Give the backbone structure.
Amino acid sequence: MLNEKVALITGSTSGIGLATAHVLAAKGINLVLHGLMSPSEGEKLANDFSAKYGIKALFDGANLADVESIKRLIQNAVDKMGSVDILINNAGIQHTESAENFPLEKWNAIIAINLSAAFHAIQYSLPNMKSKGWGRIINVASVHGLVGSVNKSAYCAAKHGLVGLTKVLALECAEQGITVNAICPGWVDTPLINDQISSIAKQQDITFDEAKYKLVTAKQPLPEMMAPEQIGEFILFLCSDSARSITGSALPMDGAWTAQ
Ligand code: NAD
């Protein structure tokens, strides 16, 4: 059923987005790959996906901090691939600092990339999805869309906003065959969290791996990081027909972090 659909995954040059791209491509889903990468590296990535999985793949390096670039990203995807049936708003950035000392440019960048970009991508994708009477919108939020943590004011504000946006879009799309959900992961083993691990290692004079364990177990009862592929498999399920009644949900995948 998903064979021949087109998925646009923002931030699919790394981490969760890249792993999800592999999971979806293995099921024959055509891809618009996206992220901060040079055009030649991006073209190579898309060609590698096409060769490995026999799918159509396209790369776009749109900067999500710029609204016009997001508009062009969606338009380009629809023009070249025929549609955007599955939109995965995954790209995100992090900066940790107390609210009192949080740099304004970091606040603005996190809100723009982690929250506003998802709104713009959804807004520009909806006419195409509605014309087909089918769509899947999956917003990669975080446990920080459900609970707070110190030094993450911008990230938590953006991710809570993304959960709210998910609920509203699910209501607005409920009769159009389009589901809208947010996934709320705990710790996932990707480059996004390396700065946080390195900073603990430095402060406490311990190894990177020891710091990683400390970071995970500080809040997450399950004492291991998730592999990004696990999120990809969950996203694949949300795209399936079996998941057509799951909409408007903020789905934790967090090793019992938010069960406390
Ligand atoms: P990552 O750093 O491995 O990948 C981030 C991706 O976003 C990259 O492809 C990057 O190029 C892209 N990106 C960043 N800024 C961009 C911009 N201005 N324009 C276009 N693309 C941009 O991170 P990840 O851990 O895979 O994170 C993916 C999502 O998962 C993020 O939204 C993150 O908040 C969320 N998340 C991650 C974790 C975790 O523990 N890693 C936990 C919960 C939620």
Remarks:
- The chain has two domains: 6-188+227-259, 189-225.
- The two ends are 38 Å apart (CA to CA).
- Strands lie at 6-9, 30-34, 57-60, 86-89, 135-140, 178-185, 250-253.
- Residues 11, 13-17, 35-36, 63-65, 90-93, 113-114, 140, 142, 185, 187-188, 190-193 surround nicotinamide-adenine-dinucleotide (CB under 6 Å).
